[in-house]
Records
---
Amino acid sequence: MMPISYAIDTATVTQYLQQMVRIDSVNPGLVTGAAGERAMAEWLYQVCMEMGLEVEFQETALNRPNVIARWAGSGAGKSLLLTGHTDVVSVENMPGDPFDGRIEEGKLYGRGSYDMKGGLASILGAVSALKAANFQPAGDIWLGFVTDEEYLSIGTDALVTAIKPDAAILTEPTDGRLCIAHKGFAWLTLTTYGKAAHGSRYMDGVDAITHMQHLLKMITTLEEKVFVDDLHPLLERNSVHASFIQGGLGLSTYPDQCSLQVEHRYLPDLQASEIIQLWQDEIDDLAKNVPGFKASVKLDFERPGYEIERDAPIVQTLHQAFNEVMQTEPDYMGMFAWLDSAILGRAGIPTVILGPGGAGMHSAVEYVHLQDVFDCAAIIAQATADWVR
Ligand SMILES: [Zn+2]
């Protein structure tokens, strides 16, 4: 069968992207009092309505709705979700108007252009190309525009309670590569316990801060000796670092407590429970060998990593669509940073990630390459048609 090519209306896609970048959707979880996703959600709702999709809001927090749109299939095919987040990070340190959406030499600038309104424009471009070609899906095509990816991902947490598509394409920026793996992370608090006493009473006091040195040393051991031996082909290695440290009562007092917050970033085959166990074993060991040593470990937050096999059907479909549209084989990658695909994966939705190229994610000057946005739209249109037909 000859593959059908879906023509992308580049002028409209550019307009969509420019309009989205001009909407302030800074995440209020990151910046107190920030605009949030409401205006973006209203804009997306309107565009989806105009395309003839069924659309609804799903509240994820006060004034922070997801937009869920559905192009109903005739019933026989597999369903597909095209998804991305509507929030952006802070505009601190950005010169000029961070939301101007100006275009220079094929690049569209502004906060969120690359991460990830460019990806959202690819989704809209893909669906409007299918509509323009009078495509008739057999399976449902879902669009999920979610809140809060840049903070706690309440958007995708809510989305997976509402719909159960057979697969998903997430359009986070991958510079045109197929991303099939990313790391998980865990935030832990380690606390050492001492005994408060007058600074002169060495016979009574136990110094909790000095005891923290053993746990700090454990970070170095993990980094230099343990994690270096376990390498993933796309994600390299596990890592851990200290984030905050706190403790002490006064200059002339033995500190009764010291707490250290650490962050682990780990490979998809590792679980937060195994990380905790690693620390618990070390604490038990130290308690046996260091006089007066007492400590605890507590998990504050975790998100798992994610990985999908290259021969998974959705990966194959996107691979072939890429090949047809770009006339070359795609490159594969893993993302060190965490993505919503872990939540989709945990909900049983096989997900692959593809988005446009650009620069300046979370930085002072951010832009996306318009040609990449059009290419991604064409690839996603082809993959969607192949999947749901
Ligand atoms: Zn993102």
---
Amino acid sequence: MKPPQSPSSLPAGEILRFSAGSSPDARSRLDVERLAGAALRPLHDGDRMPAWLQDLPWESERLGAPCFNLWVSSDPEDARTIARLAPLLPRDAFIWVRVASEHLRAREALAAAGFAPVLEMLNFARRLSQPPPAETIDAELVPALPSDIEVLAGMGARLFTTDRFHADRRIPRGAADALHADWAANCARGTAADVTLLATRGGTPAGFHAWRILSFEGERAGATVLIGTLPEHSGRGIARALLQEGLARMFAGGARTAWVRTEAANHPACGLYASCGFAPCSRFWYFRMR
Ligand SMILES: CC(C)(COP(=O)(O)OP(=O)(O)OC[C@H]1O[C@@H](n2cnc3c(N)ncnc32)[C@H](O)[C@@H]1OP(=O)(O)O)[C@@H](O)C(=O)NCCC(=O)NCCS
């Protein structure tokens, strides 16, 4: 493997334009800023470096094959760069690339270079100028404890079925379920989230909300990692109460912005975020090397 790229040589502006569009929102800018700390493998193309591969060890272990994010630094309207990348990519690997939805020519070029569109994602944001009011529901909201890890894993495996792993025909359903079980468990372990709130009804787990507190341009932001309500408890305002309580706790922790991301076709989640004051701010497609 080639040595990791030194962070200072990442052309963040170009990567941003490709993956997050011409007016990238703060969440997208932060995502790319955090890339500077990741181990990136440059893809050489003569003396130009049009792209970098980011190793994804957690996904690789769970899916049983090498997994990478591909970050492209090129003019999204210039299809030639993408065509030149295809022969440089490892075979028998899962390689995902994000492209801003507005870049139609880049999407066509990715498809011509052997990438398949998986699904479109929406980023939402809202300001937190004051804590939102608490919701009255017939459920109790309590911080998840280490003893709740198994409960969270069970909910993770059941709840998340509209994501890019489940939408991918190359990924067996059981592997996508197991990946989400581990992701939700890692929220309760505190490795995938800073705080996880559990909703219980009559002592029975009904849903959860996990989030991180991030720092960007001198301001704190709360970013929802996962949120869900088990189907047998849905439509009772539990997710809205979990989200509003999370926003109140983010505000108390100093966050003045909140971010959340979901699939553009996840209408229940998009409705939930809109009902809690979030507005969409950017959209992108996940493509995966066929
Ligand atoms: C999205 C989800 C969390 C909603 O949970 P819920 O507890 O049933 O939602 P609530 O009862 O609190 O509803 C709050 C608002 O969300 C929206 N909403 C919820 N279910 C909806 C649906 N099926 N269709 C459209 N909007 C919906 C509505 O705006 C609703 O407000 P209203 O009842 O006043 O119209 C739940 O369907 C779920 O867990 N889905 C699977 C996991 C997931 O996709 N999570 C989000 C991505 S991480």
